[in-house]
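Q: Got a minute? One more chain.
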Amino acid sequence: MQNQVKQNWKNQLTKKIVATSVCASLALTPLISNACTSFLLKGNDNGYVYGRTMEFGLALKSQLTLIPKNTAMQGVGVDSKPGTGLNWTAKYTAAGMNGLGLPVLVDGMNEKGLVGGLLNAPNTAVFQAVPAADSAKSIASVQMLTYALTNYATIDEVKAGFPKILVNRSIIPAFHNQSAPVRMTLHDALGKSLVIEYLKGELVMTDNPTGVMTNDPAFREQLNNIGNYANLTNVERNALVINGASFVPPSSGSGLHGLPGDYLSPSRFIRALFLTKSVPTTYSTAQHTNTAWHILGSFDIPPGAISLPASNAYGGGAGGIEITEWSVVADNKNRMYYVKMFESTNVLAFDFKKIDPNAKEVQFYDLNKPQTYIPIN
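A: Always. Here it is, folded:
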């Protein structure tokens, strides 16, 4: 299996388009598509539930990927080759979604409840200019989440550890010689949230009080934009009275009138923020698992709603549509990781408590299962 993993790296890094996610994509033209959305919900029983959508214009053929602890990991160096970067041994078992068969997580959770994902940031992500002499201290941008989940248990550990490594500008030759322009969102079992970005070649770590993240612009600008929507509330508005005449809202939902409904990243950020903060605080972690799916439905892209012109390399240079390839919900209290693929409405469950503690090799699980329905008579 290890030889197979190494060969997958070699093939994918040098011969194929590595489209690790919209959020971890190697998008190349000004016509960028990036519609990933993520958030965190807090249960009343000290549990947390993470939700995330993954959009892309090419078929990623994502699999659920399990990386057991003690697995030898190869860092991709400045020459874009696995093994010439920072090699490490996985301290913790991690599992989540990959892209195109690579042993790289673009979303996932580890055995300690650290959970998160990579999201696309093509307009802002600029990684460190690592000299060849420091290649062995660096990893590729597509490895950021894999490194975090296999090395750290908490946000505090991440904040202490990431400044000690470098994230280089290694490229994917088949994708027009560019790096994967990503940022990373992370949440731990204590409810702490962190965003990691590389802006103008510098590491920027920002505590995330909202638990929400989407794509560009830079995360700090997303936070600054929240004040523009201070008028929104989940509480229904009273009728407007003018000179004794009463004008009632046409239906329920008046409090959130003006909530952005389009697919632009700043709009999705605000929508996710208000939908998550409106959830009743009395809900348990189990209830939030169901709630997360309802919230994710607000970001699911119906086929054809975002169409890509043939000039957009993101769609493979052949046009096409962007879809929500998969959505995930992770319960980091009960160590459950749920996935729903585009091809069906089935929810597939991965239980960390059932992982073989003696597993030695990276494992891939095919999630493309036929649509199933539960008969009622």
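A: Residues 12-33 have pLDDT under 50 and may be disordered.
Q: Perfect, thanks.
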